[in-house]
Amino acid sequence: MFSYEMPTKLYFGKGCVAEAGDDVKALGSKALLVTGRRSAKQNGSQAAVVSLLESLGIEWVLFDDVEANPSVETVRKGAALGRQEGVDFVVGIGGGSPMDAAKVIALLCTNELDDAALFKGPYKAPLPIVAVPTTSGTGSEVTKISVLTNHSAGTKQSVKSPLLYPKLALADPSFTMDVPEAVTIDTAIDALSHAIEGYMAKASTPVSDVWAEEAMRFLGVHLTNLRGHLPYAVREDLMYASTLAGIVISQAGTTLVHGMGYPLTYYKGLSHGRANGLLLPQYMKLMEESMADKAERVWEILGFSDAEDFGAFMKDLMPEVVELSNEDVAKFTAMTMKTNSVKATSYDVTAGVVSNIYKAIRR
Q1: Would 53 disulfide with which of 58, 59, 147, 166, CB 3.0-4.6 Å?
Q2: Domain 9-176 is found in CATH 6.10.250.3280
């Protein structure tokens, strides 16, 4: 028995924002735009959304203070603006950070939640959410998850509820044309980790596996040419794969890679995708033991022979190493073992397993 839920209406392709007028109009008469400080202004996504809103006679107000790995404090600030302005819906424009922030801002516009309740619920329905991705990695435009930096807990944590599914996802690959090389690599590997982890997760389903294999197929043909200028056709494939991988984790969730990656981001400053990339080869060695058939299928789709072959490729793509003291390893292991990612993983994950993976990626 399994269930499948995907209530988000997806528009995909060049110029898709302008085609969504009827659906956007139905959401209300005033929007809060949630963005980072620069990229949405530079890549044309904010202008496209504003043009649509103004053509529909919809008022809008801008909140552009979202940082990388947005904090609880930031989303509370955005929600305060939304309530003050009396907005009807929220539009998140950007990579995972603005889209994740927009989800929780929409939630806090309708819910009075302290920090504990924010991550646990229960919740009343948020304002309607529109997600406009401008990177190809998180798939947040089609998920029920928002990841925030919780400084009081000293790590990143997830707000998760079916209520957080965006009403609309407007995925235009042309907004990603000028994404820097490092971000292109990080986000592509983030999408890859979503597809692989969801495929391997205990909660995977026959439906999510179809999307996972399709996402890996579109990513696999481009893994060796993520550097330099990428033509639109490649950018389109990467965004398509990212969106599919978002659907995968929305159904099946993430596993050990994400649980172990969050401390690396919070304490060591690694981007989310780069942290995942460092961990994936070691994770796949576990999967070769516990899920040999699926692991073999991953290598078949991606064009690698095994985890060692994949690890060599990833070392070339992401040659960074991370400084981890024995104290870091012990701390991060303890943090990881408290997360749901351990239970979601199709392997008997012990503290020793986690510790050994951290030791394998350090300098």
Answers
A1: 58
A2: no
Residue 231: CB atoms within 10 A of its CB come to 8
Nearest residue to 268 via CA among 351, 189, 325: 325
pLDDT-derived band at 320 (thresholds 50, 70, 90) equals confident
- The separation between the first and the last C-alpha atoms of the chain, rounded to the nearest angstrom, is 45
Q: Which amino acid is at 114?
A: D
Whether omega before 128 lies within 30 degrees of 0, making that bond cis, reads: no
Q: 93-118 pLDDT, tens per residue? A: 999 999 999 999 999 999 999 999 99
Residues pairing with 159 in the sheet: 146
89-94/145-150 β-pairing = unpaired
CB 206 within 8 A of CB 245: no
Q: Where are the domains of the chain?
A: 9-176, 181-361
Pick the closest to residue 198 from 238, 242, 145, 255 (CA basis): 255
Identify the CATH number of the domain defined by range 181-361.
1.20.1090.10
Q: pLDDT value at position 96?
A: 96
Look at the block and give the residue holding tokens 């942290």.
Answer: 275
192, containing H or E segment: helix 181-200
Helical pair 181-200 and 307-317, crossing angle rounded to 10 deg:
160
Chain CA centroid to CA 155, Å: 16
8 Å CB contact between 270 and 278: yes
